[in-house]
Fold this protein.
Amino acid sequence: QTFWAVVPAAGVGKRMNANRPKQYLELGGQTVLEQTLARLLQAEVFRGIAVAVSEEDGYWPDLPIARHPQIIRAPGGKERADSVLSALHALAGQAATDDWVLVHDAARPCLTITDIHHLIATLRDDPIGGILAVASHDTLKNVQGESIIGTLDRSYIWRALTPQMFRYGLLKSALQTQQGNPAITDEASALELQGWQPKIVAGRPDNIKITRPEDLALAEFYRAQQTL
Ligand code: C5P
């Protein structure tokens, strides 16, 4: 079996209020993006890693990892799903329909090698694929305006993380079909709308997405605790 990684890294990260996109903020002496890519390379399972980078991105060319032989650059897209699709197109000709693709956010630098291997080991014989996720410990409210109109049964609520692991051909056709649909906020949702039921694999809750300024300090703390 052949495994590819796709890393959408073409966001601007507005919620960070920073002077540069969040994937280029500093974390442990490197950029967030370099730390994320280093984790994927350390897993030693990927034939190639396609990174979707905005065409106006002036930071990427200066990163040494941009010249790594396993790294393939693809143009970024308007939304995250467009960036993922662009990276999948960059793998066309190399990737076979049944190959596995693990899509992982550039902004998740705390992914452990153990979780990558756990996801792969659990799903490698699955016809479709699935995602890392964590069970929700918070009580979740359904809200309209400022009023609560219901409480979700949290025993079947999970928070989706990345990597999300799917067959190359299936993922590409699902994203193509659902292109422009605002309901597509991750890869699994595109497959769900095509009628598939992707699997859930319990991941580590410290696999956070850098979203708000304080998340950088949190990521540094988590990374220092990890044994990988
Ligand atoms: O903004 P958000 O946190 O949802 O972004 C998740 C990931 O998707 C980030 O790694 C970001 O760089 C990427 N992204 C992208 N292309 C976009 C928007 C987001 O590659 N147009």
Residues 34 and 179 are 29 Å apart (CA to CA). The pocket of cytidine-5'-monophosphate is lined by residues 8-11, 23, 52, 76-80, 83, 105-107, 209, 211 (CB under 6 Å).
